Amino acid sequence: MNRVSKLAELLSALDSLSDTGFALAIHIRFTRPLLLYQSYSSEWSEIYSEKGLMLTDPVVRWGLERTGVLSWDDPGLDDPAGVVPLARQYGLRNGITISTGPVTSRTISGHTRSSGPFQPDEISRLKCLVETVHEVTEGLDALDCPEMEALRALDFSRDRLSSG
Fold it and tell me: Domain named Transcription factor LuxR-like autoinducer-binding: which ranges (predicted)?
């Protein structure tokens, strides 16, 4: 199986576990991901972008600073800008963040769903999927190669899913 097909399969599995969406920033280097996929609603994506929330998003900050799994309901989460409560207003509930890889090439994902908190076995499955995405995309550096173009063309947006 080639890398594009494998990544499409992994993204599909992530999406099936996150009915209200996910975001996946792969191999973040110098604050910029090599690849970025997200399936949150276009409404939330627009608000997030317009307000520049990535700069104050506590789950992104957490993922850049450490690896592991974080519940968005963690009482120790420092969120002075109120990003998590705002996300809830747009239907992003029961969120978790998964961060893996070295600080020089970190992969961070966020997952939400409507049916209640993720259970430990589901969190383990998501963590395994994100770690596999990180491994499968290791070594991608040629930003204009045909493989990168094919990887960038993979679309898991909610708008595509609801209209297809």
Answer: 33-100
Strand partners, 55: none
Domain coordinates in residue numbering, the chain: 3-155
Tens of pLDDT, residue by residue, the chain (164 residues): 588 899 999 999 999 999 999 999 999 988 789 999 999 999 999 999 999 999 999 999 999 999 999 999 999 999 999 999 999 999 999 999 999 999 999 999 999 999 999 999 999 999 999 999 999 998 876 555 676 777 777 776 545 444 34
CA–CA distance, 58 with 63 (Å, rounded to integer)? 9
Reported pTM: 0.88
CA distances from 39 to 46, 120, 129 (A): 12, 23, 16
**Strands 21-29 and 32-38: what pairing?**
antiparallel
Picking from 137, 145, 162, 164, the residue whose alpha carbon sits closest to that of residue 11 is 137
DSSP codes, 58-98: HHHHHHHH--EEEETT-TT---TT-HHHHHHHTT--S-EEE
What is the phi/psi pair of residue 43, to 5°?
Answer: -60, -50
CA distances 31 to 14, 55, 66, 107, 155, Å, are: 23, 10, 14, 11, 22
